[in-house]
Amino acid sequence: TQLLEQSPQFLSIQEGENLTVYCNSSSVFSSLQWYRQEPGEGPVLLVTVVTGGEVKKLKRLTFQFGDARKDSSLHITAAQPGDTGLYLCAGVKRGSTLGRLYFGRGTQLTVWP
Amino acid sequence: EPEVTQTPSHQVTQMGQEVILRCVPISNHLYFYWYRQILGQKVEFLVSFYNNEISEKSEIFDDQFSVERPDGSNFTLKIRSTKLEDSAMYFCASRTSSGANVLTFGAGSRLTVL
To answer: Looking at domain B5-97+109-113, does it have CATH number 2.60.40.10?
Structure first.
């Protein structure tokens, strides 16, 4: 079983459409992070959310942390081909002092022009 | 912008051979990590290292694996006797002692075991 269930696994949309990626768990996290990974590269941090109910915006990307800190979502408005990539959610379990990250399987997003 | 550097970018080895993957974390970071990603699978935690000792390791990190910080800048992952299933991308990451566990990842070392 996955500690963090990420969905959908694949998403293929047209430029200009909106999309949402979900990251769910039965565990509580002290923080949850979203990364973007390009082929042949390491994950690059997009945002960290730490407070239940927190919403953070990064241009056209909106990240939300669930009130109970068990889930998170990434919403992209008016997707562009440059948004194409692998999006990963990862969390630090509540009580962890060592920062071990648990990753979801990722969502491969393809935005067609 | 400071970055984590990893070498080699790609290594091909025969099963049973020893492999050392090298990492230079960001200079003022104090926590160091190795993660791996088997092709098509999720990124998995291997080990964390702080104050010159392992602070946490996963069930993947068995006796075939070891880590070392031989000097003030390098952080290495050694696999003593590689197996086919060790083929993966290995990512080094580091972070400061403060902040909300924000890790900076290297670009990875691709290990192919034949």
So the answer is: yes
